[in-house]
Amino acid sequence: MAGLTLERATRRFAQGRAAVDAVDLNVADGEFLAVLGPSGCGKTTLLRLVAGFEHLDEGSIALGGEKVSGPGLHVTPEERRVGVVFQSYALWPHMTVKRNVGYSLEVRGVKGAEYDKRVGAALKTVGLGEFAERRPASLSGGQRQRVALARCLAMEPKLVLLDEPLANLDVHLRAAMQDEFAEFHRVTRATMLYVTHDQAEALALADRVAVMDMGKLVQLADPKTLYREPATAMVAAFIGRGAVVNAEVLERESGGKAMVEVLGTRVALRAPVGAMPGPARVLLRPEGLAPAIGAGIAATVKRVIYQGSTNAIELTPAQSPTEMLHWQALPHASPRSGDTLSLQITDGWVIPSGA
Prior knowledge:
By secondary structure, the chain is of the alpha+beta class. Helix content is 25%, strand content 35%. It has 9 helices and 21 strands.
């Protein structure tokens, strides 16, 4: 397996619009990187550039230190030794599982004992050794996706690309397949680039997550940092449930915090290095709100959503009625729509200035 490097990678379509706009990205050998973002952000185009299905307009791409795309250079997809797992599985219905897994080896002229060894090992890795002679139609959606993974593994690719691989599965199968992908990565230590719009998948699976917006890479971080310290208001609003509200930084404090005036109250919140006094945007997540002891932020309950073990509460603060706060409560202690609550802020993040 090998690492991946993109330098100023750019792809333009009609009217010169950049679907991928000067993206710099380094994926370490053996790393599991998720590329996350809303529809139309450029994540699938990025994957197609890496695979070789699209040509760069500017910049370069290298696999394992070897340049495969750049000015005057475009190595074909079949020569890049990149495995791709699509959401549609892309299996041949008339072929057995074994032949589907080994088809790319057949094309490359691999035969006999070597063919059987590589196909057998790949099927064993994904737990489908006993299904070798079955047809795809007799398999579940999750099993078909594992066949697609085994096909990648048999190719011994430099890089595994996964394009929305769980989009066609129901919620229970998606949860099971997340475990399959995690195990696949643990066993193979393959370098994996996982494209998805589902933040839960990205945060659960990846070593790091790259968030894209309008063709640009806006933040690259481990899941915990991405959730707790988003670099822009877009990332803050896109990742997890929370509210991005207007605030005023009053002064910098020690311990990575700043005194902030927000929603009519003053509170010390986590802040990035260099946070200066002045207007700011603050991220408030559900777990950063709690019932106030004494005076607090007055807020009216607009909606209560039953979620089993908890209720999701949507509230509008009296200080800023156009904002929507999110909070969680146990069902037995949940307020009702129309109730007025007094809340305190126990945690929040000052989004970097200018983001």
